[in-house]
Write a structure and sequence with these properties.
It is a single chain. The two termini are 15 Å apart. The protein has 5 helices and no strands. The chain is mainly alpha-helical.
Length: 81
């Protein structure tokens, strides 16, 4: 699983948990719809830390809470160099 896949998986999980739409997340985070679609559909190969920080802000949580998920376990991630 790539980092982008892990971010997309975490977003999906939180959207469901918080009963929140992707549109609302886009509004709360300030991320454009096209950019969010690229993340969610796997067309984005590298998601930046600043984007992940905006996503966490959109969920009204600290970055550390967003990253506190099994999806980000380094054993599961393919890290591109």
């Amino acid at each position: 699983m790539t980092v982008n896949d892990a971010v997309a998986r975490r977003i999906s999980k939180l959207l469901q948990e918080k009963n929140m739409s992707q549109y609302r997340l886009e509004q709360e985070s300030g991320i454009q719809h096209g950019s969010m679609q690229c993340i969610m559909n796997g067309r984005n190969k590298t998601v930046t830390l600043s984007t992940v920080m905006l996503i966490a802000k959109g969920f009204h949580m600290p970055l550390t809470e967003f990253l506190d998920d099994e999806s980000f376990n380094s054993e599961n991630l393919e890290i591109e160099q």
